[in-house]
Each structure stands twice: as C-alpha cells, then as structure tokens.
C-alpha cells in the first residue's frame, strides 16, 4: 500500500519521500505494543523526553522508505528505537559499540541540527513551534533525518525542544554524561577482563614522576624532572609533572605561570632534544627568554633552533574554518546533490585547504626531524599557549623518529604525554558545553593530528601496529562524553573536577575510564580490528628496543654530506658556550622569534633534499620514517569520511578485501607455528620473536560469514543494501563547457575526411 | 639478428629534470636509445625503446657555450633532453639524423623493429586468442546465436574479425543489408552473453540515418531479433557512447542514432563520452601537470583542469550502466559510438571485465584485448602512430590508455579481484609503444593477416606468459562468478601515480601489502615444510600417537574462501 507522506502528515507541505505504510496503519497496528520504548540504557542514563511514531528516513535509500519508531533524548544521547523487530541484529555484533548503537547520537556528537527547508537551528526558539522534520549532522559525519509529522503534537514539540536544548544550549561540565555514568558504574572492576587490563596497564599515562623518568631514560635524555607542581602550586596551567632542561633554575619555574618554560618532549639518540614552550610576550625585558634558550642549548652541544609555530602554521581558527568547509563534502543527505558536487570534487578539496593544512603540519614536523636527525640541534618549538600545534608537531616528530610510538601502546602513551599531560585544551577545543564565550576557541586540532598520522600510516603501512580503523574510532571517541581523556583542559582542571565530583569526598577522586579502556566501547573481537595485519614486528627483539634501533638508524643517516651544504640559518648556531652567551646577551629577542619563516622557500627545498636523501636509502620500518608531501601523496581519509555515504560504498572491495587476505594467511602462519610448538620443535625458540600477531584474522572471518563486506567495513554492513551500483545522476551538465579549446568536442573521431562519408 | 648498434657517442649530457646534468655515453640501436652515466653510484642508466619517441626536436642553435641540445618528446609521459659539445658537428648531425630515422621507421621506409625481433619464447602465444574457443567458453553457438563465416575474407566488413556471432534467425544475406545501413559495415554482433539470463552485449557502429532520418527495415528487424533472443526482457537498451549533441551532429554527415520511433521497445541512452580529440588534449594537459614536477599547492585544481579523471569517470560510468542493465536488468544492450572502434571498445571491454571474472585473469585479459580491441579493429597503428614522425596527426589519441587506466581504477577498488597486478598493466602500456612485439601493430585483423604478423613478429603475450609470476597479484581471490560494480564517484577515482608520475623519483611506488603478503607466503611454505617433516618423524617413531595429535596440517589450514 502506497501513500504519500505529505497528504497524511499535514505538517510537511511537500512530500519528499514515500512511505509504504500509512501512519494510521502504524497506529492501529502498533498501539498495543506502544508502551515505553527504550534503548538499553547505560548506568546513570536518564530519559528526558520521547516521542513515538517518528519516521527515520533516508533519501539515499533506494526504496525511499522510512522506518517508524520512537525518538528519545536522554542525558547521554539522542536515540531512535525502531518499531521493527531488531532482525539480523547478530550481524552488527562484530563491531558494535557498547555505548551507543547505529541509531544513537551521543549529545556531544551532534554537530548541527536543521529544520524544515534546511534551516539551521541555533537554540532559543519560539515556544510552541517545531519543524515537521529535523536533520541532524553528527561530528562523526553521520546524517539523520527524522520526520515528526506523524507524532502527537505535544510529543513532537517536546522531543524537538528537548533535543535542541540538550544538544545546542550551554551547559555545565557536570552535566556531561561522564559524571553520572561513572558514579553509577563500578569501574574499573567490571572492565578488567580481556587483554584490556593489560593494555591499560601498559599505556603510560604520564601522571607520575616515574612515567616521565622512565620515558626520559628510554630515550637517554638528560634533563630535570619537575615534581614541584604535583599540587599545581607552580601553575594550574602546567602539567602535574614535566621535564625541563637541567639548567632551568627553581626561580624560573615559577615565572609567568610556566610561559616560556621549555618543556622536554623527546631526546634524540645523539643527545639533542625536542622542547616545546608557550611563547612569552615579547615585552619581557628580564632575559627570561635568553636564559631559557641557553638552558635548552646547554642540553647538547650549545645548539638550539627555535621555531615559532604561530608564525608558520595556520591558527586554530584557520583550522576550524577549513575543516568546516571540508566536512560539508561528506555530510550528505541528498544523492542528487552528492553527484552534483562530485563534478567539482578536486577543486573543492583544494579550495577548502584542509589537505594543505595537513601537509603544512607534516612538513613542519619533517623540518624539525631534519634539525634533530641531521644537524643534531636542540629544537624549541613554541606558540602562544604551547598546547595546540606544538602538540601536533611534537607528536608527529616522535612518530617519525621513534618506532615505539608506532605501536598501539606507544601511540596511546604518546597521546597521553603530548596531549593529555601536555595540556591540550580538549574541552575548549571541542566545546562540548556549547558555551558562547568558547565558540572562538573551538577547533579540531586533535583530529588534525590524527589526520596527519593517517597520512603517515597510509604511506608506510607496515610500520604501524595500529590500523586505520583504530584511528577512525579514536577520532569518534572524542565526541563520546564518557572518557576523562577528552573532557578537560589540563591536569589541574581534571584533578579538581574529578575530586569535586567524587561521591566519597574524603577519598579518592571519581574514577572514570580513559578512552584507552577500549573494552568500555568494544568487545575483544572488535578490538582485534585495531591492529594492523601488515605490521611487521622488529625481527630481533632479544636486546632492548633502543639498543638495536640505534645502529640501524645511524646507518640510515649516512646521507651524502655534499648534498647538504645548507647555509647556516638564523636562529640556528653551534658555537662555543661563551660565544653563545655573548650573543644571547646582546641580541634582541625578536631576532630569535622571527627566525624561520623568512626563509621558508629555502627550508622547503632543504626538506625536499632531506626527503630525497632519506628515500634513496633502503626503507626501514623500524627506523626513521618521512612522509612524501607531493600533491598526490596527501589524500582524503576515505574510511573516516566516506563510510556512511551509500553511493560510494565499494561492495566486495575496498582495503578490507586486501587486509582480510593478509589476515587470513597470517592466521595460517600462526596456526602452523602453533603446531610446531605442539610438536615441541626445538627450532621454535628461534622464531618466537618474529611471530606475527594474527589477531584480525578471526574477526574478519567471523565477519564474512553473513555479511557482504564493503569499503566502509567495519562501520557499515551492507545487509540492507540491494546489490545495485550507484549510477551517477547529473553526470554531465557542466563537463567541460569551458575546458575544451577550439572545436575539438565537435570534431569527428577520425581526422581524415574519408571517415566522414 | 637484429639489434644493430648504430651509434655510440661519449660525453653526451643528459639533462635529468630531477638529478640535473649527467655526463655519459649515448648508444643508439635500431631498437633503443641507451644512456649510461658512470659518475654516479650506482650508475645511472636510461634505456628507452625508440618506439616510445613521439618527436625529436632540436632545441635552439649552438649556444654561446658551444653546446647543442635536442629533446625527445615521448609517448609515455616524459620528455628527455640531451646536450653535447658542438665541436664534432658531424656527431650532432648523426645523432639527430639517426634518431629521426630509426625512431620513425615507417616515415623512412624502414621496417618496424618488431619484424626483426627474433627472441624465441617457449609458448607460441599468437594462439592465446582463438575466437571459436572464446565463444565456446561463453556457450556459443546456442539456440539463438550462431557463428557466421560471412566475413571470412573480410568482405562484409574489412575492420571486423572473420568470426562473428549473430542471431540464428538472420541469414547472411540479410546481414549484408544491415551492413549497408551501419557505418563502415560494422553490423551489430555479439560480444558477450550472460551465462544465465542470456542477456547480451552487442557492439556496432552508428546507423546511417542522415539528415532525412533514413530507416532500414532490416536493421530494425535485426535489433528486434537481438532483443527476442533474450527471453527475460522485452526491452533493448541502445547505449550511444557520444554526447547527444555530437550524435545529432553526425546526421549532417550521414550518420546519427536510432530513433525510438523506428526501433520499438528500444531505449536510447547517450553516455556523453567525448571524442578522441578531446581525450588527446586532456592527456596533453595532464602531462603538463605531472611532468616533470608537480606543483604542490594546487595539485587537485590542476588535476581537475585536465579533465582526465572526469573522462575516466564517464567511461567507467558508461560501462557500469551497461553492466548493470545486463546483470541487474537482465536486458540485452547494444553499444556504439560513431565507428564503433574507440569508445565502443572501451565500453564493451570494461563492461565485460565487470561482468565476467574470466577477463580478470591474466590469460582472460589477454583474450579480452585480442577480442574487443584487436580483432574488432581498434586502429592501434593510427591511434599510436607507430614509427610515424607525424606527431601532430589528428588520428592519435590515448583511447587504449584510458581503457587501461579504467581497469587500474577497478583494481584499486577491488584489490583482490584481479589476477594481474599493476606491473602487468604498465608492461602492456610500455609495449604498446615499444614496437618490440607485433601485438599492437596494424589497424585491423585483416591487416594483421596480410602482414603475416603471427609469422613475422613475436606476441607480447609470449613474453608475459613466459614469466607470469612477475605479473601476478598475490592477493587474488578467484571469485569468478562475481560481478564487480565499481564506484564511479570522483571520491574514489585517483590519478594513476604509478604510471603517469613514475618518472618522478619522489613518487616511489610502494607495494607494502604485496611485499608483506609474499613474505607471509614464504613463511607459510617454510613452516608447512617443517610441520610436515616433523610429522613424518613423529609418524616414524610411533605410528599410534601421531594420529591424534594435530590431524593433517594441510587440512586444518586450508584457506577459507574469502568473502564474496
């Protein structure tokens, strides 16, 4: 039975889809079962309001059919519960998120809400008014469309205003779901199964002196661990614990709330190190800056190179603007528009500048790597605040130089070190609270970092233990307001809130999971998809990672020296200590601060040479990694951005087709190895180190039993999709009206006149 | 016999756009140009078949520094520049003249090198394609389709193969009348038949409708018969590859397209693919963008301005629509452009790659090229201009390159669905120009028979099939019954860096997956061997206990069929 939605709904003037069931039918049929519908509520989750007979629909659905169900708003999410029985639910279980399902939107994940005629809804609405349909754009790039035309007016009004209120209007941090969730969860007891416990244990949290000392020892750094801030006495903006050059005096620690203080990030095996700092206002006259530079220089060979990222990289506002343009290409609610925009896809990519920002960050990181690796100079990167692009660049530098950070645990530790302990203002940057005065500070800086990591991973797959799926999930988790990792602006902020919220005021602070407790979101099988089957572990592991790493590394560094006669640059010098001090005493601060940007073309060509010299050496996945930055090499993160768009799913194809094959054979190798072990083969011991970790095999095989895989694996399964190709609509209108010189298009295929007969 | 060393010149400078000037020795033979510079470690070597050269030009006169220089414009997206001291004027002259002569043998009355190449390969692979055998594989002839000998001596159509498949009910006499109504006599014939639904892919040239809207009862009946041969559908789709404007313009020259009035139950669809001139211009622009260096900042806009990927998209989209109609709609389709040897070949062969897993194997792909391209008269000699110095010839066009590019795009989207690898596709393109093998010589089957190519030249497939492991995709999963529908959105199309930008050393090709996979295969073989050895040992020691241990290792690790 066919009926147009508009004719029944009354509210929506123009029917934009066809339902195969009339609402009357629904009502009569479903009335008996119309008791309260709930998603499986999480501990501490409370339903604020709900409406039934809401139609969820998608224009991309070939049948243009919708699904009726209830729409709810809780303190955690907006949730749609379908009236249809959850058939084939088993199919989804492989990669099911335990916190929210495919029809749930965590409140902090809501990006924008649109009403009728795609009018952006901004909150503060006239009472008693509500649109007949709402479109929700999510931060993880899902798009939901709901029609309220069939619901009771009262319900519809309530749910609409509820959603708008809870998703768009300012709220206090305490209202975030994490707090009620954690109060009601016996965490961590319930999460200690799987390998999770182990994994959590091994992710270095950098919340103790030991963690920092350990990391410094690992890299053979020789600096000073500062524990004077453990109660945030030095400054609430500084991390609880951190490392500074040995020469920094106690007196300097307390100045300017930590501004200008060079914070150690990582030590190169040559002895030089990377430091980052929040830049000091230029007006300071008391030589703090000089003292700090001296302290950094003193770390190794009296050399230091400064890099003010505020001068050379886009601002956080630029990043936001660019990303806002970029993400629009993927928030698709209309097939026709999608194919229209396909025509100008490449130039749109260029115009939004997002890929270029990624390239700039990677390039800057390569420059720093070059200074550390080739020139063995200490590097001090700085920016206002010191916790945005400094975090991006310092993390990237470490990923390129240190294979430890390319392991799953190493990577998580890196995020802890540089971002969480490093004081990246996650709360302000994500603006989960929708505070009007924080709108300016919103910016996807962490996502930008993940994008850069993805580029590296894309170019050098076997070097990374974690998979693309892992990065995508991590980027989604930022918007799930459960994890302490992403809820605060810095250590002291976290500390004070968790203490204040603790139910047992006398005792320990509230215990909330970090995002690294992956079992909160995924079961063990699903977590198997976080590892990269292509990852090649280091062949020899009898000695410490660092030890065997070094000689290889050095060999790779034997670059043709003649190619690198770069003239000495401003801001970079190797000199005697006295000389240094003399210069430091005399030179104006600005000379230092302005150094690198002025010679950027030169820097760029130097980076090219550095890359090319590196490229001629045999590739060592456990050594230095550099990204290729040429145009075609920087690409769009397909999995993250295209996974929900039906028209671009490659059914039966995509990277998973390849990876599953690799996983499969990995599993076979592992099985053989096991058999050998069982036979008690004496040779086995020699091979233990090189034993592959075939974790994904099982998961992938499990997945393929009932589902046809596609390029958006594991995020979308194709159970509902008919196996029909997406034929582009509007292929051509604009093709080359301007692009063809002369009358080429009108000419006959064959040049000679004889062919025209 | 064959390779003549024509010239060796020392102290020639090759001006490499990436490394800079390199001084070395230049050797020219009747097949190749060879440059070697010993100053570098390892030695720099440039090895270029002369067939690749499209143009040789002198650059400037004698410069003040006494250097003369000349450039080679190549068909494979690069330009080479050489220079040397003027002092031996005779040398310069000879280098230039020898290049002009031997790079363009056809223009100089010489034979193309393929006719002199005497390498013997284990397999005589001119037999790789046997039309009868291929049609038999497709289940032909059957109750609706017959194989006709009407074109045995290329009398019906001199650009068609001798073996054609036509409807059973149409006698040869009628075929001739249909031929009169189709451009160049290229009548609708069967290219592929669906093994289950019997829906067919039919190819032909445009009907000679003309300005007056001429009709042919024979042609109309013929298409009706084609539709009737497929009981599943009462419709026929006619895909005209051209933009409708161009198709209409062809009426002025006697051509045109089928009117839906005349052809009952037929639906005409234009696929809007542009002509060979537009494609040539697009490739020229692409070369400007990618060679020698890439401008970093506006890469995507520059790429877009070449329209190259838009053309690729349109071709793939056209083939996808054809494959969809045949597979999902169970409907027969007729495909044509103007003459039916450029765009039509692209579309039918791509649709067949989508529809039939056989064409995704190494051998099957060879059959596909031999059939849809070579035997059906894609004019390789004209489109490539083998040995012809007339580089501005308007007949040249990268039609075949586009087809290979489209196939590459599909291998990207379905990395486990093709038996061959990227190197296979690149090798085909390299030998498209090299003039080493006879495969891509001449314009039609008739000409190839006349020139006795199988007797006088070696087939490219002989070379490729002598070392198939080089060209094999280790990730290949043989799901032959599986139809592939690629996504033809720009989001999933990308420039084939491994081909178009391969001369740029910064864009080093990376195949870590394949590498890793090969390592794993080796590892598995090693372990398997060891397990077997052990088991033998165990069996020998005690026959009783071994059976309960692990069972057969080979069974327990039998690869699971990868998803479909």
Structure in a nutshell:
The complex is a heterodimer of chains A (757) and B (564). Helix content of chain A is 38%, strand content 11%.
Keywords:
heterodimer; A: 757 residues; alpha+beta; five-stranded mixed β-sheet; 38% helix; globular; disordered C terminus; B: 564 residues; seven-stranded antiparallel β-sheet; 20 helices
- Gyration radius from CA atoms of chain A, angstroms: 28 Å
Distance between the termini of chain B: 51 Å
Please identify the structural class of chain A as seen in this structure. Answer: alpha+beta
Largest sheet of chain B: 7 strands, antiparallel
Pfam families (chain A): 3-PAP, Myotub-related
Subcellular location (chain A): Cytoplasm, Myofibril, Sarcomere; Sarcoplasmic reticulum
InterPro entries (chain A): MTMR12-like_C (IPR022587), Myotubularin (IPR030564), Myotubularin-like_Pase_dom (IPR010569), PH-like_dom_sf (IPR011993), Prot-tyrosine_phosphatase-like (IPR029021)
Family (chain A): Belongs to the protein-tyrosine phosphatase family. Non-receptor class myotubularin subfamily.
In words, what does this structure look like?
Chain A is α+β, with helices and mostly antiparallel strands and about 750 residues long. Chain A has 29 helices and 17 strands. In chain A, the strands form four sheets. An eight-stranded antiparallel β-sheet of chain A has the order 6-5-4-3-10-9-7-8. Chain A has a five-stranded mixed β-sheet with strand order 13-14-16-15-17, sandwiched between helices. A two-stranded antiparallel sheet of chain A has the order 1-2. In chain A, strand 9 (about 135-140) and strand 10 form a beta hairpin. The longest helix of chain A has 24 residues, at about 655-680. In chain B, helix 6 (about 275-290) packs antiparallel against helix 7 and helix 9 (about 345-355) runs parallel beside helix 12 (about 400-415). Residues about 545-564 of chain B have low confidence and may be disordered. Chain B has helices at about 90-100, 130-135, 170-180, 215-230, 245-250, 275-290, 300-305, 310-325, 345-355, 360-375, 380-385, 400-415, 420-435, 445-450, 455, 460-465, 495-500, 510-540, 545-550, 555, and strands spanning about 5-15, 20-30, 30-35, 45-50, 55-60, 65-75, 80-85, 145-150, 165, 190-195, 200-205, 235-240, 265-270, 330-335. By secondary structure, chain B is of the alpha+beta class. In chain B, helix 5 links the parallel strand 12 (about 235-240) and strand 13. The longest helix of chain B is centred in the last third of the chain and has 30 residues, at about 510-540. The chains are: A alpha+beta (about 750), B alpha+beta (about 575). The interface between A and B is large, with 95 and 99 residues.
